[in-house]
Write a structure and sequence with these properties.
Number of helices: 10
Oligomer: single chain
CATH class of the largest domain: Alpha Beta
Largest sheet: 5 strands, antiparallel
CATH topology of the largest domain: Alpha-Beta Plaits
Helix content: 40-55%
Order of helices and strands: HEHEHEHEEEHEEEHEEEHHHH
Strand content: 15-25%
Structural class: alpha+beta
Low-confidence stretches: none
CATH architecture of the largest domain: 2-Layer Sandwich
Number of strands: 12
Length: 286
């Protein structure tokens, strides 16, 4: 077997060192998949990310070596990014919040039809509803994929939702054609963030794909629960002091009424309570 030349080895070492230096200069390191991404769109994304993030492309093997060396040198858990070297991977380096980066990349993806030979990126579902097809061979073509149909007002209607391809399955030419004719575009063209490392933590799309509204809702709920807990435990702060004083006053007042303490603030309540008890006793006697 032919051994790599010294020049090739030096070039590989240069690439590995560059990856390591970039990782040291940025707060976060991610793995992106640029599979099916046209070169023009990639260049556009690079330009839009300039000053925010840097994309670096090289072979998987060199990425693995760099990650392993970084881990040995003390960059905790970064080696776990190896598990996310899927598709056509590249590295992305940024000091931006990973959630913001994920949102930017997601918003800059566009839908596209799936082509024959491509993997389904997720379960592909044909939804129930009316189509623009008139009755004819299309009914048999849909039936080949177990899509139940009917005819209403001269148009083919799909009776129920059907999963025609599971995530990871290869789509054949006939299915790709049907999906395109139905206007179903399951592919997303853009940089897909597989995972990102920041300060020893690996964030996956499942964690990063949270809407701003949902985050605000969760923060509001946490703040509300923390406030309730502070009141219940008597934790004194500028945010709780007024409620704690009001709570203490209510509780002291209730104790005073229960014990019949004849303070001027309680006399009317004590008399009202005594009258109510007298009425109840009278009813029982009668």
């Amino acid at each position: 077997m032919k051994m790599p030349s010294q020049r090739v080895l030096e070039e590989k070492r240069r690439i590995i060192e560059k990856i390591k230096n970039l990782a040291r200069n940025y707060k976060a390191v991610g793995i992106v998949d640029f599979r099916n991404l046209p070169a023009r769109q990639l260049q556009d994304l690079r330009a839009r990310l300039r000053g925010t993030a840097e994309i670096f492309m090289t072979k998987k093997r060199l990425i693995r070596i760099a990650l392993e060396e970084l881990e040995k040198e003390g960059t905790t858990s970064i080696k776990q990014l190896e598990e996310h070297l899927e598709g056509q991977p590249a590295l992305i380096f940024t000091s931006q919040n990973p959630f913001k980066l994920f949102k930017f990349l997601k918003e800059n993806q566009s839908k596209a039809p799936i082509k024959a030979g491509q993997e389904a990126p997720e379960d592909i579902v044909v939804k129930a509803g009316k189509t623009n097809f008139t009755p004819g061979p299309i009914i048999g073509e849909l039936g080949a994929f177990k899509i139940k149909t009917g005819v209403e007002e001269g148009k083919v209607v799909i009776k129920e939702d059907v999963t025609v391809a599971k995530k990871g399955e290869i789509v054949n030419e006939k299915l790709a054609s049907i999906l395109q004719r139905l206007g179903i575009e399951p592919m997303r063209i853009g940089l897909k963030l597989n995972a990102i490392w920041e300060e020893g933590v690996i964030y996956t799309p499942e964690v990063l794909d949270v809407s701003t509204e949902k985050i605000l809702e969760q923060i509001t709920m946490i703040a509300r629960n923390a406030h309730i807990l502070a009141i219940e435990t008597g934790y004194v702060s500028k945010d709780t002091i007024n409620e704690l004083i009001a709570k203490a006053y209510r509780e002291a007042r209730m104790i005073g009424i229960e014990k019949g303490i004849l303070a001027k603030e309680l006399v009317e309540d004590i008399i009202s309570r005594a009258e109510a008890q007298a009425q109840l006793l009278k009813q029982k006697i009668n």
